[in-house]
Amino acid sequence: RPPFAKDRLDVNYEVLRHTFDDLPPGDYAIKLFHDLNVDAVLNTNLFGVPAEAYGISQNVKAMFGLPTFANAKFRVVAGKTVRVSIKVKQHFDKFL
Q1: What is the distance between the alpha carbons of residues 95 and 91, in angstroms, rounded to a whole number?
Q2: Are 51 and 43 in contact (CB under 8 A)?
Q3: Distance (Å, rounded) from C-alpha 22 to C-alpha 16?
Q4: Which tens digit of pLDDT belongs to each residue from 31-58?
Q5: What is the Cα–Cα distance from 96 to 85, expressed in whole angstroms?
Q6: 71-88: buried (b, 16+ CB within 10 Å) or exposed (e) per residue?
Q7: Are 34 and 74 in contact (CB under 8 A)?
């Protein structure tokens, strides 16, 4: 699916908060990554393992590629605030 919304943030803290206002009701998923080399791509090593830290809504583990939308989605309901907490997985390039 093409992104409904995307944003670029400067990372200066261990905890980062961001708000998307006025999203229409529906199902959404979030993927994020720390773009270390500022090329707008989640870089991977020779084995396809992310070389930059990343996170996915529902904290779904990525196994052999990105998880499905169905596994990462959450619901936005009109008039309700939704908080999504994503744990960022560190890149593994230094271990290979």
Answers
A1: 9
A2: yes
A3: 20
A4: 888 888 999 998 888 887 788 888 999 9
A5: 29
A6: ebbeeeeeeeeeeeebeb
A7: no
